[in-house]
Amino acid sequence: METNQSLINRCPWCLGFPDYITYHDTEWGVPVHDDQIHFEFLVLESAQAGLSWATILKKREGYRKAFADFDYRIVAEFPETYVQELLQDSSIIRNAQKIRAAINNARRFMEVQQEFGSFSTYIWGFVGGKPKINSLKRGEPYPATSPESDQLAKDLKKRGFKFLGSTIVYAHMQATGLINDHLMDCFRYEEVKF
């Protein structure tokens, strides 16, 4: 028997745009321990700066192709000639600073891996190794930053990462399950509590 999708309680930010609903129902808030997925979200979230997440989701496949399926080892080696090609690629955000930041961040990402064994080990250290579970109720505003995102953004900046301030870092932490910001009455709130 098919369930009526409109009767399912979801976080209100995802309603009205089918790609948002799919993203919310399958990815957002799921704890991530895979370095390549972390890198994907770092690229996408830094590309989002000043834009909507809907814009980025629409261009996600373009990014996947242009950025070697988010293989940070390959992205770290992108030459300037490829940056110039990417600036002509309408399937991504054609912003030279953001493109160069992604390449820079791939290099910094690998430095973090060398120091901590994995980027996942490093980033999860900022929440004590387990998801921080918030208790948001319908109608309450979502936080844009947290003490953890402030600390992480400051440390990333110190390590040379670009386009990753506290707000973008907080979005990364939400997306990759370091912080569970599903509303308490959202059907995903309990599902992603690991």
UniProtKB/TrEMBL annotation:
Pfam family, one: Adenine_glyco
Taxonomic superkingdom: Bacteria
InterPro entries linked: Adenine_glyco, DNA-3mA_glycosylase, DNA_glycosylase
PANTHER family tied to this protein: DNA-3-METHYLADENINE GLYCOSYLASE 1 (PTHR30037), DNA-3-METHYLADENINE GLYCOSYLASE I (PTHR30037:SF4)
Protein name per UniProt: DNA-3-methyladenine glycosylase I
